[in-house]
Amino acid sequence: MTASANSAAATAHHSAAGESVIKPGYDPSLTNEDLAPLKEQKWTWYNIFAFWMSDVHSVGGYVFAGSLFALGIAAWQVLVALIVGIVAVNLLCNLVAKPSQQAGVPYPVTTRICFGVKGANIPAIIRGLIAVVWYGIQTYLASVAFGLLALKFWPSLAQYGEDGSHFFLGLSWVGWGGFVLMWVLQALVFWNGMDTIRKFIDFCGPAVYVVMILLAGYLIYKAGWDNVSFDLSAGTPTVGWGSVTAMISAFALVVSYFSGPMLNFGDFSRYGRTFGEVRKGNFWGLPVNFLFFSILVVCTVSAGATVIGRDADGNIITDPVHIVDQIDNTTAAVLGVLTFAIATIGINIVANFVSPAFDFSNVAPTKISWRMGGMIAAVGSVVITPWNLFNNPSAIHYTMDTLGAVIGPLFGILIADYYLVKKQKIVVDDLFSIKPEGAYFYRNGWNPVAVISVILASLLPISFVIWGTSFQASFTWFMGAAAGLVLYYLGMRLAPASFVHGKATATSTSDIAVSADGTTTTPVEATLDNAGASSDS
User: Where are the transmembrane segments (predicted)?
Assistant: First the structure.
C-alpha cells in the first residue's frame, strides 16, 4: 500500500481528548479515538504557559515554595537553588515533550517505543496509580477551603466540622461536603473534554495571579514592607558546608516536585502546534513563572505572619487557605479561599486527572475510553480516603516516595531510547501494530531490556527511601533516572537481537516514519538498528 492510499483510507474520529486519525491497519487492542495520533495540533505557547501556571498555582505549590525559604539558609542561596532547579526542569520537560509532540500521541503510547506495545502498560499503570493518590490528596486539601468558608458563614456547623464529633471514615461531615463538592466540580470540567480544560486553564492561570498579587499587596500594606523577610526559617541559620548541602537539597526538591507532571508532559505537548511553541511555553511557564510565583509566596507568607500571627506551635503559616481564612476582611477571605480552591482544581485536572485518563485507557483501549479512565481515577481517589493518608506522615512517605522512586527510571528509559537508541525517529503506525514484524513488538509485545531496567533501576532509590536519610531520599529521582538511562542503553546495545526480539524480525509495518525535525520518510524496512538492537550485537 502506498503512503497516499494509506492516508486516504484513514478516518478521523472526534473524541473528548481531541480529533484523531485511525488507519485501517491499527489494531483495536492498542487503539481508540483518544490514543490515536491527533489530526491537528493547535496549542500555542500560551496554552503551554497556562498549563504550567495551573500546575504551580495550588495549595501544595504554595506550601512547597514557602518551605524552600524555611530551609535555614540565606534567601539568595534559596533563589540560586530554585533557579538552577527550575531551569533543569525546563530542559528535562523539553526532552520528554518532543516524542509526543512529534507523533501527536499521549505519554503511554509514546512509551511503546521502548517498552513495547504491550509492555507500555507498566509505566502507564505506575504513573496512573501515582496520579490517583495525588488526585485524592489535592482534592482533600482544596476541600478544606470550602469547609472553612462554610464555618465562617454558618458557625453552627462547627459540631459537624473537624472539632465536632460527627465523622465518617475519618472525615467530618463538613469535610465530606467540601470534598464531594470539589470532586464534582473537577469531574464536570474534565468530562467536557480537553478543549474545555484548555479554556479553563487559559483563564484560571492569569486569574489566580491577579488575586494572589492583590492578596500579597493587602498583607504587605497591613504589615509594612519592613516586616517582609525572605527568610522564613526559625532558629540559627545554617552556615558553611551545611548551607551548601541545604542548597543542593533545595535543588533536588524542586526537580522532584515536578517529576510527576514532567514524566507525563507528553499528554499535553502532543497538542503543541510545533515543538518551538512547546519550548517557548515551557520557558515562560517554568523558569519565569515559578520564580515569580515563589517570590510572591514568600512575601505573602512573611507579611501574613505579622498580620495574622503564627499557629499554635509558633510556626509561620504557609498554607494559603488558612492565611486567607484568618483575614479580618470577609470579602478578601472569601475571594482568597475560592481562588485557591479553583487553582487546585486546575492543577488536579492537568496533573492528576488527564494523566490517568490516558494511562488507564492505554491498558484496555476497547473497553476504557479517556473519559472512563479519568473517572476510574476519580473513584479511586475516594476509595483510598486521602485525608487518612495525608494525616499519616509515615504512610504518605513510604507510599509516595516508593512510587515516586520508579518515576526516575521510567524517565531515564524513555530518554535513552528516544534520543540515544532510536535517534529521534518514530514509526507512528507501528505504535498501533500488534504484528510480530512491527518495530515495537519486540518479544511478544514486551521489551525485556526495558522491563529488567526499570526493575533494577528502581531498587537503588527505593532502598534509600526505606533505609536512607531524608537528605539522601531527596535524590531518589536522580538516582533512578540515571540508573534507568544507563542500564537501558547498555542493554539495548549489548543484548543479542534474539533476546530483545525473540524469533520476530523487526520490520516496519508502516508507510510513514516521523523524524525529529517533523519530516516524514517512507522506509522499505526498519532494520534491527532502528528497532533498538544491533544485528551483530
Answer: 62-92, 128-151, 171-191, 203-221, 241-263, 284-309, 329-351, 372-390, 402-421, 449-468, 474-491
Average of per-residue pLDDT values in the chain: 84
Burial (CB count within 10 angstroms: exposed 0-12, middle 13-18, buried 19+), residue 155: exposed
Q: Is 219 helix (H, G, I), strand (E, B) or coil?
A: helix
Q: Are 409 and 483 in contact (CB under 8 A)?
A: yes
The CA distance from 95 to 72, in Å, is 33
d(C-alpha 471, C-alpha 477), whole Å: 13
pLDDT at 110 over 90: yes
Contact by Cβ (8 Å): 170, 387: yes
Q: Which CATH superfamily is domain 28-501 in?
A: Hydantoin permease (1.10.4160.10)
- pLDDT tens digits for range 343-369: 778 888 888 889 899 999 999 999 999
Kindly give, in sequence order, each residue whose CB lies less than 8 Å from that of residue 106, ignoring residues fewer than 6 positions away.
17, 34, 35, 100, 264, 266, 267, 270, 358, 362
Q: Confidence class of residue 97 from pLDDT cuts 50, 70 and 90?
A: very high
Residue 312, Cβ density class (10 Å: 0-12 exposed, 13-18 middle, ≥19 buried): exposed
- For the ranges 90-104, 285-299, 495-509, the lowest mean pLDDT is seen at 495-509
> What count of other Cβ atoms lies within 10 Å of the Cβ of residue 330?
10
Domain boundaries, the chain: 28-501
Give the residue, 508 or 392, on which the prediction is more confident: 392
Cβ–Cβ under 8 Å, residues 367 and 136 = no
Closest CA to 100 of 259, 262, 261, 268: 268
Percent of the chain with pLDDT over 90: 43
